[in-house]
Specification:
transcription regulation, DNA-binding, Myb_dom, two-stranded antiparallel sheet, 15 helices, sequence-specific DNA binding, nucleus, Arc Repressor Mutant, subunit A, mainly alpha, SANT/Myb, 4 strands, two-stranded antiparallel ribbon, about 325 residues
Length: about 325
DNA sequence: AACGTAGACAACCGCTTCAGA
DNA sequence: TTCTGAAGCGGTTGTCTACGT
């Protein structure tokens, strides 16, 4: 362990503390933490770490639990709807990751932060502009976000087409699809401001009226989580905890099978945020089937648009 | 097959905030 | 009111894996 690792928060660690483990968590450690919390609930993290016999800091235990082991952590690709929401909320609040995470049930601030750094900043780099620059923000708002909306609509349309297969004529399908699109916008609380010009899809602004602050059922805040699932009964409803595991590549899903909370329960929007509660899962067959294919927005058309936009800015 | 590189994500660090003594 | 420890938070780093050469 290097010198930096021996210090935390400007204090030298004791000899006992130097014995603390670092780095990736093992399956045994995960199981110990899960079992301890399932039995005793959460408490003071430092005390918990000691009592559970984990040679980890309380901080490390807390992070592992909140970001990985917690039963309602949602893993896997960020959906198109989630991407749209992240872009919108980040444009509003900046790097307030925990605040943004409140709007994405099951997603952690860490995950959103990682998404932003690896995907969004990558695009800024491709465009050779700063992620915080007006140019990039405009590109997000006027290109990326409308395109996300289009793809969400396309996914919804595809779903509608499948479910209505053989039932309608193509003309009816078109009408239905238009209704789907309209409903989607309603569901997402999106309003279209007047278009800047005819070439352009338009920007989408999230309505301000529904926020976790004014909703009594805000989810997944790391602020509030400690009071949400903290009892044995709560946890045993979610888990069946195996005694041991030899699988070093185990995921939380390998450790326990959720018994009541289904996947779809985790990924609907917080009640009160989207006017009618957006069912992410039902709208996203594209992403589930093909993985995250949403990164390739910067085609020739986009680049031309951006160039033109930047030229107008400079005039 | 071996190596290098980039991307994704888990984990850590240190500062700030908050609550209780 | 002040102090102290715990927890929260955002930035950064480390590690693993997939992919290209």
């Amino acid at each position: 362990m290097d010198e930096k690792g021996r210090r935390t928060c400007n204090t030298l660690l004791t000899d006992d503390e130097i014995d603390l483990r670092r780095g990736p968590w093992t399956v045994d450690e995960d199981l110990t933490l899960i079992n301890y919390i399932a039995t005793h609930g959460e408490g003071r993290w430092n005390t918990l770490a000691l009592s559970a016999g984990l040679k980890r800091t309380g901080k490390s235990c807390r992070l592992r639990w909140l970001n990985y082991l917690r039963p309602d952590v949602r893993r896997g690709n960020i959906t198109l709807e989630e991407q749209l929401l992240i872009l919108e909320l980040h444009s509003r609040w900046g790097n307030r990751w925990s605040k943004i995470a409140q709007y994405l049930p099951g997603r952690t601030d860490n995950e959103i932060k990682n998404y932003w750094r690896t995907r969004v900043q990558k695009h800024a780099k491709q465009l050779k502009c700063d992620v915080n620059s007006k140019q990039f923000k405009d590109a997000m708002r006027y290109l990326w976000m409308p395109r996300l909306v289009e793809r969400i609509q396309a996914a919804a349309t595809a779903t509608a087409s499948v479910t209505t297969n053989n039932a309608y004529t193509s003309e009816n399908n078109i009408k239905n699809n238009q209704i789907e699109v309209h409903n989607l916008k309603d569901k997402m609380g999106l309003v279209e401001p007047s278009l800047m010009n005819n070439d352009f899809v338009g920007s989408y602004v999230m309505q301000q009226s529904h926020t976790p602050e004014n909703s009594s059922t805000a989810l997944s805040s790391s602020d509030s989580f400690g009071t949400q699932v903290s009892t044995k009964s709560d946890l045993t409803d979610y888990y069946s905890v195996p005694v041991s595991s030899n699988n070093n590549n185990a995921t939380p899903a390998d450790y326990y099978q959720p018994s009541q909370m289904s996947y779809s329960n985790c990924i609907t929007s917080p009640p009160g945020f989207f006017p009618q509660g957006l069912d992410f899962q039902s709208l996203d067959p594209w992403n589930l089937q093909n993985g995250d294919s949403s990164d390739n927005f910067w085609n020739v058309e986009s680049m031309l648009f951006l160039e033109q936009h930047l030229m107008n800015d400079n005039m």
